[in-house]
Design goal:
about 30% strand; mainly beta; 9 strands; globular; single chain
């Protein structure tokens, strides 16, 4: 039998993790060659709302508005992280052109000065 969680447990876990981001966190896209353990150059740095995520429903929290980075540093994206305003990583995400945690519809290569936007983001800590 697979491990399952009640909706209340999934909501509590998801809300606990998203609360760690705190006020005015960031969604950062990191360059190829950096790692989760040692992230280096940031390709794009997007501001999260003062309250990054709404309350979890059915185990999933949806991000509030995310401000575009209108002057990206540029590079090829390897992964993304959701961080506190002080730069502490809370969540790491895979990034690809499709079928990933975060999908970059225009490809993984960002030119310096480009605008990088996020049209929607949700997070679930546990599976049903």
């Amino acid at each position: 039998m697979a491990v399952t969680h009640s909706t209340a447990a999934r909501n509590a876990a998801t809300d606990a993790v998203t609360a760690l981001i705190g006020a005015s966190g960031r969604l950062k896209f990191h360059i190829t060659g950096s790692t989760v353990a040692a992230p280096s150059t940031v390709v794009a740095n997007l501001a999260l709302s003062a309250t990054a995520f709404g309350a979890s429903a059915s185990g999933t929290a949806t991000a509030n508005a995310i401000t575009s980075d209108t002057n990206a540093a540029g590079g090829t994206v390897a992964f993304a992280s959701l961080q506190t305003s002080g730069g502490t990583a809370v969540i790491h995400c895979a990034v690809a052109a499709s079928a990933s945690d975060i999908n970059m519809t225009n490809g993984l290569t960002v030119t310096a000065g480009d605008t990088v936007a996020c049209s929607g983001l949700s997070y679930a800590a546990l599976s049903a």
